[in-house]
Amino acid sequence: MFFYKISSSKRLCEALSKTASHLKCEWAKDGVHGLETLKTKDELPGLIILDINMPRMDGFSCLKEIKKDAHLKQIPVVLYSTADTPELRKLAQSLGAADFIKKHIRFVHHK
Asked: How far apart are CA 91 and CA 70, in angstroms?
């Protein structure tokens, strides 16, 4: 499976490449970069993981743009954030997110 992560950190992609080599993860540094890249892809991801707090364009704005695009809107989008309130979850759902995950994973560096 190919999935796309839009976040200011690429740690999740790095961790998955070491633990789940059958998954292909591509990373974009922020919402603007992510949208620009997705719109030029021949192969679309099966899932987009979208951070809420990013520079240039936050995750909610990026999700709105993804859902407006006829080419991208069918891709499931999972929002994730360190913030987790009922209001954020409701907003994510109203904008078309497939799910909302609270960040609480600590990545351990293995040598």
From this structure: 21
Alpha-carbon separation of residue 4 from 10, 33, 49, 110 (angstroms): 11, 12, 6, 24
Reply yes or no on whether the pLDDT at 1 is more than 60: no
In a domain, 110, yes or no: no
CA–CA separation, 92 and 98 (whole Å): 8
pLDDT in tens, 42-78: 889 989 989 898 888 999 999 999 999 999 999 999 9
Q: What is the pTM of this model?
A: 0.82
Q: How many CA atoms lie within 13 A of 78 on its CB side?
A: 13
- Cα separation, 101 vs 96, whole angstroms: 14
Beta strands in the chain (DSSP E): 2-6, 24-28, 47-51, 77-81, 99-102
Q: How many domains does the chain have?
A: 1
Q: The CATH number of the domain where 52 resides is what?
A: 3.40.50.2300
- How far apart are the C-alpha atoms of 1 and 110, rounded to whole Å? 24
